[in-house]
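# nightly structure sweep
# worker-07 picked up a monomer target from the shared queue
# config: single-sequence mode, recycle default, output format = structure tokens
# input follows
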Amino acid sequence: MSGVEIAGVGMHPFGRFDGPTATDMGVTAVRAALAEAGVGRGGFQAAFCATAYGGVASGHRVLGALGMTGMPIVDVEAGCASGAAALMLACGAIEAGQHDTAVVFGIEKMPRGIIRSSFFAPWQEEAGMAATPAYFAMRAQRLMATSGVTKEDLAAVVVKNRANGAGNPDAMFRAEVSAGDVLASRVVSEPLHLWMLCSPNEGAACVVLRAARHGHPSPAGTAPVRVAAAVLRSHLPGPVLSESTPMSGLTDDTVPAASTLAADAAYDIAGVGPDDLHVVECQDTDAARELLAYEELRLCAPGASASLLASGATAMGGRLPVNPSGGLLSKGEPLGASALGQVVELVHQLRGDAGARQVEGARVALAHTVGRGANAGVVILTR
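# output follows
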């Protein structure tokens, strides 16, 4: 997929806001991305809006507020991977020649408290196997058993990401923390402490895509950032219960995770491998989820995630910085905007204008999200 490039990006900061609606935040992000791309009314032929809690016609409300309706507007939901799914659909339409320019944006105003999802059966919610801290804790315990991860490793992920987030003006939490601070926060569900969990929140992100052509101007005179791959994959049936619980595959490690399926497909499409990556934004819904992503994305061998973290390779200045934006542990997670927020960050990294969190020499980047345990999105960008 070399025929799609990113013409502009925009963000509404992630956090909690009493005034703006989800539509208002979407307007902010879309307006900024269109302005950067130099695209006005009539300048794009399709729009894709990622949201999980936005309700019917969320995308129409945003573009209606801008007076920019008339084209196909499609709402897309895939849990935390909603933005990746919307991006994949838009890229496919452009690659097929259906559209020249498309707007992809994500919006969310998450309810306060634990995320609820109709994806899970009532018995799973009652047993703590839904998208709750109990589910994340079960997954973390399994990772500790299979990869030797410790609580100290989980705290180290938080310390790393919160340090990165201190340099991100769009992040919800911008203060560095110590491992002692993390471990002193209350235990929510063993082994996860409060600060090891991301915060569901609010925000918006937008990416303007266009067919790659010679002669297109790029922001600030930089070389264009291209979408080398945009992949969504769903889980395979597991031998124990289902993929929606962390027990899936417990007795059979030959069943690849949805993230591995998506990553392998994306590497193949982009013509790159894990060793070619310069920077990664990955799902860190909780601290253990980031370490699991190291293994599922083949950034390290199975069981070696704790060693990769301890080596410093995934820290700023390391061989492969992960979550220079601060990740979800710093930004919080507005589901529909989450994956596109990663893409916005990586566009800045590849342009070289990420400021204090810049990864020097970044030319190949990967974004990764997991939605509802059943969807995994992987996007590879190059410059």
